[in-house]
Design goal:
heterodimer; A: 23 helices; 37% helix; globular; B: 184 residues; alpha+beta; Alpha-Beta Plaits; 2 domains; 5-stranded antiparallel sheet; 4-stranded antiparallel sheet; 10 strands; binds thiamine diphosphate; binds magnesium ion
């Protein structure tokens, strides 16, 4: 027999037993019983200003620590406000547990006050979810939720608990074992698939390591570096994998995809073997799928068997934890190479030449105004690769992925799969809670910032001193870029006028943060240094940048990667390249 | 386009039908029929799903289905290696004049009359898809007033049972305290 207590206390004890040290949330009627024992718990509860903030904060925390992020909300609107962060976490495979209160079980189905079928709503984008109406089931549901969220391919799990289950008396029994007959993640790769992969690598002459976010989730950076150096071939890191492999490494060709480098995009296109490690052939990477890397065979290593063959046929599928997979692959490849040493020199030489011809770059605005790319480049140079960078969604996100130099995993956070504007400020808050001694910079758009900046109040009051660089181009810049390129410059509803309203410095000040502003290139360094010197308060810098800067290179949506443009109406000069 | 029959063992828990139906809908998989019912094990329900595979491979459908935590086991039932049947209840127009013709059809298809009125007969029949559609064709000329048809159910031929394969489930130890690092 366990200890007698309320369902609410059982919930809090369960969360403690699951190892939770912090959670983000807002109370309300249905979850209120839980907030009473939370008051006495060792778990730090951070009172956010919007449940979306709680969800993204849990994500930010999870992304930097690798632990499960936890958020908590009440029924109805509290729960529906978690919908976006849950969908976001599902797309980016983030381990998260969301706890929601539900109306009392006898009121479920009656359209009761603040009733929303959050389990039904979130079925498509949770890894699993629960509705608990029996208080005795609370510990088991919580234990399962944490196990499911953090094992295999990580993802969000929601536990919805009826108010009466929180109020009733129950015994607290933390389960010693879980029985999940339908859930058996395969961690250990099948040996034959490793041997097949090694053989295919040995036969190939133009292999590329196509590295995705799974490399970070699996903490496989060390093994990846060994494999890359063993093979000595180009490595590309997707938007979700920036930092999995050092940007300074000579084998690194940067990011592939819609705004990838010419080197990375072309290496994939011309390759004869994609060694795919925890990546999922997303449309933003492949461009028009039927024209993607048409001559390449594919090794596809992923922990999720459903990713294999979803978008692209895999010649050699390898299902398993990526750290173990790469660790197993290294000796297998060595054995193959011992039989016959590979010669990738021609391939490397031609890719190298291409990369040198088309490095990432940008033009400074002709009117002398501030270049957004320059701001981000200096931010990276002055803050360094040990800091954590968190982006919103839009042009600034792409520039942050291109012009910040990443050397370490878990230092780059963004909303890759869902593309959620408003991600940056709350995710940076969660990141800072998870890594309190590391500088955390949100690189946000003026549009994104206006969706979730209220969490700066939470940061100011809870000693979470994040820094925010608003890349203020007074517009929904990424949409504006598409209007420039595809809608004859008809700027329908993308002008935010955010150099007039709001006054970001005053706004920052009103929220208990330091507000700074910068609109001259010559002030950039000193203002960044000043922001970096403030560690006891959140800082917001309004970088007032050139409105018409564009993100290049670009593969237009739905077109082939072969049609990559390095600037407007400018393709690489393929004729002068020998590929 | 080809049809496949899947036998899916699921945990008998609330919402599991919604999870499966939702998966098929959001991934744009075509369901021909879906039948759910209890099994010899009260903790497990069985779904028989007939799908029309077009642009998605059968393998992809199975893998996505397998990701649902409540789905325990999936097996494809090949027609030659399984027994498959559905049930129909059909109300036809019948009078004393054509009753003799009706009886002849029923005999051919092993169908039985389960209810009758002055102008209708309600017929029950079971069988695989081909037999049922032949029967319906034969009944067409009497005038079909109403048709209720179950989804297909199926079971493998021979002594093996799907459930046996799900019994060897190991339990997972939980961490005593602190978050277990299940990944590494
Ligand atoms: C919640 C949400 N709404 C709309 C969009 C579509 N969208 C993508 S980028 C973008 C513009 C973002 O503007 P801003 O934050 O100023 O960034 P910029 O592109 O100017 O750097 C919009 C509206 C989105 N991704 N997310
Ligand atoms: Mg903008």
């Amino acid at each position: 027999m366990g200890k007698k207590m309320s369902g609410a206390s059982s919930l809090v004890q369960s969360l403690e037993s699951a190892g939770v040290d912090v959670m983000f949330g807002i109370p309300g009627g249905a979850i209120l019983p839980a907030y009473d024992p939370i008051f006495d718990s060792s778990i730090r509860h951070i009172l956010v200003r919007h449940e979306q903030g709680a969800g993204h904060a849990a994500t930010g925390y999870a992304q930097v620590t690798g632990r499960v992020g936890v958020c908590i909300a009440t029924s109805g609107p509290g729960a529906t406000n978690l919908v976006t962060p849950l969908a976001d976490a599902a797309m980016d495979s983030v381990p998260m547990v969301a706890i929601t209160g539900q109306v009392p079980s006898n009121a479920i189905g009656t359209d009761a006050f603040q009733e929303a079928d959050i389990r039904g709503i979130t079925m498509p984008f949770t890894k699993h979810n629960y509705l608990v109406t029996d208080p005795d089931q609370i510990p088991r549901a919580i234990a399962e939720a944490f196990y499911i969220a953090s094992s295999g391919r990580p993802g969000p799990v929601l536990v919805d608990i009826a108010k009466d289950a929180l109020q009733k008396e129950t015994d607290f029994n933390w389960p010693k074992e879980l029985s999940l007959p339908g859930y058996r993640p395969q961690l250990e790769p099948v040996n034959q698939s490793i041997l097949d992969a090694a053989a295919l690598i040995a036969q190939s002459s133009k292999p590329v390591l196509y590295v995705g976010g799974g490399a970070i989730k699996a903490n496989a950076s060390k093994e990846l570096l060994q494999l890359a150096e063993l093979l000595g071939v180009p490595v590309v890191t997707t938007l979700m994998a920036r930092g999995a492999f050092p940007d300074s490494h000579p084998l690194h060709y940067g990011m592939p995809g819609m705004h990838g480098t010419v080197g990375a995009v072309t290496a994939l296109q011309k390759s004869d073997l994609l060694i795919t490690l925890g990546a999922r052939f997303d449309d933003r990477v492949t461009g028009k799928l039927s024209t993607f890397a048409v001559n390449a065979k594919v090794i596809h290593a992923d922990i999720d068997p459903a990713e294999i063959g979803k978008n692209r046929f895999a010649d050699v599928p390898v299902v398993g934890d990526l750290k173990r997979t790469i660790a197993a692959l290294i000796p297998a490849v060595k054995a193959e190479f011992a039989k016959k040493a590979p010669d990738y020199s021609a391939w490397n030489a031609s890719m190298n030449k291409l990369r040198e011809t088309y490095p990432l770059g940008y033009d400074l605005p002709k009117d002398g105004s501030l270049s957004p790319q320059y701001v981000i480049e200096r931010l990276s140079a002055l803050t360094g690769p040990e800091a954590i960078y968190v982006a919103g969604v839009g042009q600034h996100q792409m520039w942050a992925s291109q012009f910040v130099k990443y050397e370490n995993p878990r230092t780059w956070l963004n909303s890759g799969g869902l593309g959620t504007m408003g991600y940056a400020v709350p995710a940076a808050m969660g990141a800072k809670v998870g890594a309190p001694d590391t500088p955390v910079w949100a690189i946000d758009g003026d549009g994104c910032f206006q969706m979730t900046n209220q969490e700066l109040v939470t940061c100011a009051l809870n000693n979470i001193p994040i820094k925010v660089a608003i890349i203020n181009n007074e517009s929904l810049g990424m949409v504006r870029q598409w209007q420039t390129l595809f809608y004859e410059g008809r700027y329908s509803n993308t002008n935010l006028e955010s150099k007039r309203v709001p006054d970001f410095v005053k706004l920052a000040d009103a929220m208990g943060c330091i507000g700074l502003t910068c609109d001259r290139p010559e002030d950039v360094d000193s203002i960044i240094k000043k922001a970096n010197s403030i560690n006891d308060q959140p800082v917001v810098v309004d970088f007032r940048v050139f409105k018409d800067a564009m993100v290049w290179p670009m593969v237009a949506a739905g077109t082939s990667n072969d049609d990559i443009m390095i600037a407007r109406e400018m393709a690489p000069d393929w004729d002068s390249q020998e590929l | 386009m080809s049809k496949h029959t899947l036998a899916v063992l699921v945990e008998n828990s609330p919402g599991v039908l919604a999870r499966v139906a939702g998966l098929f809908s959001r991934r744009a998989y075509n369901i021909d029929s879906l039948a759910v019912g209890p099994t010899e094990n009260p903790a497990i329900s069985r779904m028989t799903i007939v799908i029309n595979v077009e642009s998605h491979s059968l393998e992809q459908v199975i893998r996505q289905l397998d990701k649902l935590v409540n789905v325990i086991h999936i097996a494809e039932l090949k027609p030659e290696e399984s027994v498959q049947a559905e049930l129909i209840l059909v109300k036809i127009s019948a009078t004393s004049k054509n009753r003799f013709d009706v009886d002849a059809v029923l005999e051919t298809y092993d169908a039985v009359i389960v209810d009758e009125s002055s102008e209708t007969l309600t017929i029950e029949a079971t069988g695989d898809g081909a037999k049922i559609s032949d029967l319906l064709n034969a009944l067409e000329r009497f005038g079909i007033r109403e048709l209720a048809q179950s989804g297909l159910v199926g079971i493998e031929r021979g002594s093996r049972s799907l459930a046996e394969r799900t019994l060897s489930v190991q339990s997972i130890p939980t961490a005593e305290s602190g978050q277990a690092d299940y990944q590494n």
